Every structure is written in structure tokens, then in C-alpha cells.
Amino acid sequence: MKGLLIAVAGVRWLRTSVFYSYRPELHYMRGPGPKCRARDDTSARSGEKLTWA
Predict the structure, then answer these.
(1) What span, in angstroms and rounded, lies between the C-alpha atoms of 51 and 40?
(2) Is the pTM of this model over 0.85?
């Protein structure tokens, strides 16, 4: 019985790791967007110092 429970747990882990691999780094945190780049472009032209907070 214990071996069956371990096997079922292993199959569940395998299924979730293969089919439900949610990786937020693929969807978020991709860097500054176009508005940020446009804002920094205009501030660079005016001579202001660029700082990233």
C-alpha cells in the first residue's frame, strides 16, 4: 500500500512538472517598456541625469 502511494505521488509530481510548469519569468519582468524608453529618451536629450530607482 505504501509503495502504491509513493507511485501515485510520483506520477502526480511528474504530471504537474511537465504539463503545468508555470514560469512567471517568461511572462513578467521583461524590462522597461516603450513608455519608459520614450520618457528616458526625452530626459536624456534635455541633459538630465538618468537614474533607475
Answers:
(1) 9
(2) no
